[in-house]
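[step 3/7] inverse_fold.run input=structure_tokens len=64
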């Protein structure tokens, strides 16, 4: 279980932290309040996770 924060509406919620293909990367959890998947885990590694998340979003955004 992990604490997630919705970057869309700011809602914080507890969700099952599902590991993606047995890596340390967490799948985005849909926000229970607004349904957005623009959420991210809040943890000791939140800053690092956010950085990786934003980098991956950027790479997808520019088509890599
Ligand atoms: Zn939300």
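[step 3/7] decode complete -> sequence:
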């Amino acid at each position: 279980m992990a604490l997630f924060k919705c970057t869309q509406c700011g809602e914080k919620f507890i969700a099952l932290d599902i590991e993606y293909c047995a890596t340390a990367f967490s799948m985005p959890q849909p926000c229970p309040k607004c349904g957005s998947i623009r959420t991210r885990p809040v943890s000791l590694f939140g800053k690092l996770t956010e950085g990786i998340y934003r980098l991956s979003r950027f790479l997808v955004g520019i088509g890599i």
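[step 4/7] annotate
The chain has a mean pLDDT of 77.
The chain has one domain: 2-61.
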